[in-house]
Structure formats: C-alpha cells, structure tokens
C-alpha cells in the first residue's frame, strides 16, 4: 500500500497593507501607527492589516539602495549633520590616505588620549616671552650698546658696511619704539666721516655718506670727521660742500674731528704735488664745513705721528678755527698737546740737541726736559715742553 504524502502547510508571511486613495467615505481612515512593525511578527494577520505601518518591510524594499543610505556610506564618511556631502568634499574625501597622513592622525590621537588622561591635573602654563620694553630706558640703552659692539668708531662708506653695520641695523625693524631709541643711540654715539676715504669706487662717489642718510638721521649725529691726506695731488670732485650733504640739518653736531694723514710739504713729495695747493684746499674745505654747521663749538685735531704740529697744513687749519672763534682740542693718537708737539717730532726737529736753547722753568726733568721748559730752535721755532 502506497504511502500517502502529506505536504506541510507553508507559512504565509503577512504583508503590510498600504493606504489606498479612494473615494471619500464617511468611514474615517484608520490611524497610521508611528511604531515600526517587525517583518516577522506573531500578531494575527487581521490585526496587522487593520493597523498599517508607515515603514516598508523587507519584501517591499525591492528597489535600488539609496545613494546616501546609512548602510551604503562607509563609517569614515559619516557626518554628524544630516546633509549629503558636497561635490568638493566628496572629491577631497576620495583621495587615498597616505602613510604620512596616517602618522599625523595617529599622533593627533595620541595627543588627544594624553589630554584625556591628564584631566584632573593642573594644566601647564605656557612660558611667556620676555617683554623688552618693560625694562627701564637706562637698561635698554645698555642693551643697545652691547648690540652695536663690533662697529668701527668712525663710520665711512666701505664694502664692509653690509657685514658690520647693516646687519646690526636690522634691529630697527622691530617696532617704532625700538626704532626711535636704537637709531638715536647709533647715530649719536658714532662718528661719521663727511667725505669718503676708502680706496675704490666709494672714494670718488658723487653721493657721500651724509647725502645718503635721511634728515632725522643727520639730526641725531653729534660727531663728524674730516680726514685730510687722500688725494693730496688731485682731490675728488665730490669733496665740496653743497646742499645735498645736509650739514645744516646736523643740529646736534658739537665736535668736528680733523684728522691729518700726511704733511704735503715734506721733501719726499716733491714732484708729486704743487706746493701750497693742498694746504689751501684743506683750509677752504674746513672753512665751508664750519660755516654750514649751526651749533658746532669744538674742533679736535689729530693725525699720524709723522705730521708735525707746526707744519703748513696744520697752521692753515688752526687759523680757520681761530677765525670762527671755536675751541681747539687735541686727539689721543698723535700725542699733541696745547703747548707742544709729540716727542718723536721734537726729537727729530732738534736732532742731537744742536741749535736749541732750553730754559728750565720747573724742577724735575723728564727725558732731559723739565716741565715748563721753553725750547728755541735755530729755525725760529719756539715750543714749550
């Protein structure tokens, strides 16, 4: 007898009903539940059809997935906002992450973890920079003095200025206050040469140093130098006092230093210069300079040891200073004093002692001469030791 095969009844999956728009009915439409209905529910099918859901079931979601659905967006691209990423952001995000970017991200995460672990501890205060302008002005001036060390005491046009001077002046770019203080300190504490003497392209330049500076820089100067000797046979054309030098703007200049490098009247220069030319040129140049400076009151003479105090060029220069009724001082290099020449020139002039008469006014003697000794030479020169 053949066995009778009994088929098991298949479980019918309940389907959710959708609201269908129909003609207006007096019967009110069933309320739509806001709660999601699970796909496999044990509720009777009649109850499920009576309370339709607004969410689609798995069977009803047969179309293609949404472009920005949660299930299709990678976790790395999720955002807290509900807006879809723009085209620009999408283009940037599609760039693959490099090894360097991964290392940076790991470092940021490590710092974030360290910050989280350090919660509850007292935060470390950042180190505040030192406020230079809080110092008193006296201390700031001392700092400027240390900063400008290494610059020659006499500033002239020279190829070394960029290495020695210009780099030091970068300090003036800090702020307005430091610019005013440091620039005044630099221009008032250094001596500036009126006409260039450095051999080369600067010696015959048409723009001396003073002509290259600004008015407020010239007004801060207190010392100028005139160096005589270079170009004794043919001085440069730029060695002339004119308006572009700005000497009238040097209102704080009180002292003019005159440095004589050589005596053009010595015999070994015969044939290289015209007698008396450079003496006249130098005295005329000094006269024009003193006439332009409004507040000068002192002229300091100095030179090399070979230059005699009573040589023709020195006598011509001293006569110009006396005409302007200015005070005369003597520099430290040569060894001149108000009453005598240096020891080397005196020994060279009177030789072994012949042709001189010494009248000792003082008591003690120094190098054979007592203080206040009057020396008369056979050439008519009289000096007091």
TrEMBL record:
<protein>
    <submittedName>
        <fullName>Uncharacterized protein</fullName>
    </submittedName>
</protein>
<dbReference type="InterPro" id="IPR038883">
    <property type="entry name" value="AN11006-like"/>
</dbReference>
<feature type="compositionally biased region" description="Low complexity">
    <location>
        <begin position="28"/>
        <end position="45"/>
    </location>
</feature>
<feature type="region of interest" description="Disordered">
    <location>
        <begin position="1"/>
        <end position="45"/>
    </location>
</feature>
């Amino acid at each position: 007898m053949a066995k009778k095969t009994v088929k098991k009844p298949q479980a019918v999956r309940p389907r959710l009903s959708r609201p269908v728009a129909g003609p207006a009915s007096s019967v009110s439409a069933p309320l739509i539940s806001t709660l999601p209905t699970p796909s496999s529910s044990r509720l009777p099918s009649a109850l499920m059809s009576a309370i339709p859901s607004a969410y689609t079931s798995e069977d009803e979601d047969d179309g293609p997935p949404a472009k920005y659905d949660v299930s299709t967006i990678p976790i790395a691209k999720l955002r807290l906002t509900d807006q879809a990423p723009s085209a620009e952001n999408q283009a940037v995000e599609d760039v693959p992450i490099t090894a360097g970017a991964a290392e940076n991200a790991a470092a940021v995460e490590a710092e974030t973890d360290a910050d989280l672990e350090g919660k509850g501890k007292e935060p470390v205060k950042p180190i505040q920079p030192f406020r230079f302008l809080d110092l008193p002005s006296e201390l700031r001036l001392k700092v400027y003095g240390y900063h400008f060390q290494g610059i020659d005491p006499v500033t002239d046009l020279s190829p070394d200025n960029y290495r020695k001077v210009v780099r030091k002046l970068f300090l003036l770019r800090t702020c307005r206050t430091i610019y005013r203080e440091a620039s005044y300190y630099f221009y008032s504490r250094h001596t500036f040469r009126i006409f260039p003497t450095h051999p080369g392209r600067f010696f015959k330049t048409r723009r001396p140093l003073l002509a290259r500076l600004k008015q407020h820089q010239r007004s801060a100067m207190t010392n100028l130098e005139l160096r005589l000797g270079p170009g004794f046979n043919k001085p440069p054309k730029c060695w002339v006092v004119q308006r572009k030098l700005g000497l009238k703007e040097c209102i704080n200049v009180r002292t003019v230093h005159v440095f004589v490098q050589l005596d053009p009247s010595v015999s070994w220069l015969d044939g290289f210069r015209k007698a008396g030319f450079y003496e006249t040129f130098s005295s005329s140049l000094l006269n024009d300079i003193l006439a332009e400076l409004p507040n000068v009151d002192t002229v300091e003479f100095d030179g090399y040891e070979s230059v005699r105090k009573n040589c023709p060029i020195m006598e011509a220069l001293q006569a110009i200073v006396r005409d302007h009724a200015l005070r005369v001082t003597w520099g430290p290099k040569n060894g001149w004093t108000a009453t005598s020449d240096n020891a080397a020139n005196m020994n060279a002039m009177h030789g072994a002692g012949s042709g001189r008469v010494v009248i000792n006014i003082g008591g003690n003697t120094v190098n054979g001469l007592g203080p206040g000794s009057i020396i008369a030479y056979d050439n008519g020169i009289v000096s007091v030791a």
